[in-house]
């Protein structure tokens, strides 16, 4: 554990996991060097993910069946917000795309700035060039089709790296179980009036993570699914 880890005792990383046995042990163990409080939610994995999570030495919560990433995040946040001293929360991908250094910067901003939730963005400071073309098209399409996202000034609302305070965690109630939960996050920010900001982040695209990425059509379907849900029409 790094020397700065103890200063992050009030931070909880929530990692939704579905069939990530190849990478989750390294991802969780590396993050735990800086953030000692991590809960991985094994969302009905059919591989060895649960055993790899235990081997990493972090907390494990299991769904008996696959419910979707939104449900896994909700379960993880409910677990984390019940822990003594928990003040800050981070949604962190299991596939190795997210950098701990970016989380450190986001938490520092939560501690020092008047903001409730910070969403990572790949579209700042020229970073979008590292995003694969089809992925970039999908993400831009999602923003184009979401007036609420544009009104809030978000450029990358479907970035899975988010950091937020206990105000957000206590009121978080995701009901869209699948990938559309990202659009629901935006709706909840708008509904509750949470103070939101973006943080330029670097996404580490590997052959492994690219194979799990969203296609352009999937991105459009996510937005369409959200527009049909009663919460999203409010």
Automatic annotation (TrEMBL):
* Matching CDD domains: DPM_DPG-synthase_like
First and last residue of the signal peptide? none
Domain Glycosyltransferase 2-like spans what residues?
13-171
What Gene3D superfamilies does the record point to? Answer: Spore Coat Polysaccharide Biosynthesis Protein SpsA, Chain A
Name of a matching Pfam family: Glycos_transf_2
Which PANTHER family does this chain map to? Answer: RFBJ PROTEIN, UNDECAPRENYL-PHOSPHATE 4-DEOXY-4-FORMAMIDO-L-ARABINOSE TRANSFERASE-RELATED
What does the sequence similarity comment in the record state about its family? Belongs to the glycosyltransferase 2 family.
Which named protein is this? Glycosyltransferase family 2 protein
| Taxonomic source organism | Gordonia aquimaris
């Amino acid at each position: 554990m790094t020397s700065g880890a103890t200063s992050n005792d009030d931070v909880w990383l929530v990692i939704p996991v579905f069939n990530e046995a190849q990478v989750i042990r390294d991802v969780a163990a590396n993050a735990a060097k800086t953030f000692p409080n991590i809960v991985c939610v094994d969302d009905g994995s059919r591989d060895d993910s649960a055993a790899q999570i235990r081997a990493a030495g972090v907390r494990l919560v299991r769904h008996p069946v696959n419910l979707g990433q939104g449900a896994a995040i909700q379960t993880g946040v409910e677990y984390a917000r019940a822990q003594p001293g928990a003040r800050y929360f981070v949604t962190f991908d299991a596939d190795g795309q997210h950098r701990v250094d970016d989380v450190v910067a986001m938490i520092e901003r939560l501690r020092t700035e008047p903001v409730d939730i910070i969403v990572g963005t790949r579209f700042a400071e020229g970073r979008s060039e590292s995003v694969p073309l089809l992925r970039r098209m999908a993400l831009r399409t999602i923003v184009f089709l979401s007036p609420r996202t544009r009104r809030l000034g978000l450029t990358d609302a479907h970035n899975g790296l988010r950091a937020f305070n206990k105000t957000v965690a206590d009121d978080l109630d995701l009901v869209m179980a699948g990938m559309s939960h990202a659009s629901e996050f935006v709706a909840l920010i708008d509904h509750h009036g949470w103070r939101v900001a973006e943080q330029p982040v670097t996404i580490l695209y590997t052959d492994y993570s690219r194979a799990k990425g969203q296609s352009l059509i999937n991105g459009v379907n996510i937005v369409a699914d959200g527009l049909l849900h009663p919460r999203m029409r409010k």
